[in-house]
Amino acid sequence: MFVSRKAGVSLRRRPVVRTPSMETHGRLVLHLLLLFIFAVVEVRLVCVDVPSDGEAIVGKVKKLTCIYCMKREEILATTKVEWFYKGQDKNKTRTLIYLYDGEPQEPKDVDEQWKGRVTWTGSKDMQDVSISILNVTLNDTGTYECEVTRFFEFDSFKLSANKNIRINLKVNMRASADITALYSEIMMYVLLVFLTFWLLVEMVYCYRKISKSDEQAQDTAY
Fold first, then answer.
1. pLDDT for the residue numbered 51
2. Please, are residues 192 and 171 in contact by the beta-carbon 8 Å criterion?
3. Which of 54, 50, 49, 66 is nearest to 149 (CA)?
4. Which domain of life is it from (predicted)?
5. How deeply is 146 buried, as exposed, middle or buried, from its count of CB atoms within 10 A (0-12, 13-18, 19+)?
6. Whole-angstrom Cα distance, residue 42 to residue 31?
7. CA 45 from centroid of its chain's CA atoms
8. Confidence of residue 179 (pLDDT cuts 50, 70, 90)
9. Is 100 helix (H, G, I), strand (E, B) or coil?
10. Of 30-39, 159-168, 185-194, which range is least confident?
11. Taking the mean position of all CA atoms in its chain, how far away is CA 166?
């Protein structure tokens, strides 16, 4: 059988413009959701042992950071925390200024200097056992010690672990310039911009890959 071709009429197949189907959109949303969940998991809170800053300003609130990270099997441990202070006079002994034993509390015989001025700023999981000093004065200059004791009780024996963190605090009338802190802040913003750009690139890449895969599947079907 012969097919005649009329003059001026082209039998060339026209390109078919296909739009992504509902299935493609569904797969795209699913992939982007998984990517978002992955990004959130990667930035989850992690216990980091950060040293406390050794400078305070008169009249401000000063947080004394004390971190004692726990392994997963240690979460059920009982924790006791004692905060001590020793002034600049080497002849003086250290004094207990705050205590955590079942609950945060001020020692009964605490010195008048610390009454009502120390607050608990630790976390519920007892990995952060920090305190804060209210209305800092020049007399607060000195050495602070954070003593943490964890008690573990197993079927046949008991075990305890200790950690001691010492903080040398200097109280100034005014804040001094901290170049290291400024550099760290700049690097944090740079890292944030980079991670945001990387996430956008991944989203575009996933979209193009899924769209191309769907078009190939439709071409095969035709």
1. 83
2. no
3. 66
4. Eukaryota
5. buried
6. 17
7. 4
8. low
9. strand
10. 30-39
11. 23
Residue 66: HSE in the Cβ half-sphere, 13 Å Cα cutoff: 28
CA distance readout (Å), 129 to 21, 102, 169? 55, 13, 17
Contacts of 105 (CB under 8 A, 6+ apart): 98, 99
Query: How far is Cα 101 from Cα 105, in angstroms, rounded to an integer?
Result: 8
Could you tell me how many helices (H) and strands (E) the chain has, helices first?
2, 9
Query: pTM (2 decimals)?
Result: 0.61
- Number of residues assigned to the chain: 222
Spatial distance between the Cα atoms of 118 and 98, rounded to a whole number of angstroms:
7
For residues 150 and 40, which has the higher predicted lDDT (pLDDT)? 150
Query: Six-digit token pair at 31?
Result: 């992939």
Q: Greater confidence, 18 or 194?
A: 194
pLDDT for 27: 59
In one letter, which amino acid is 222? Y
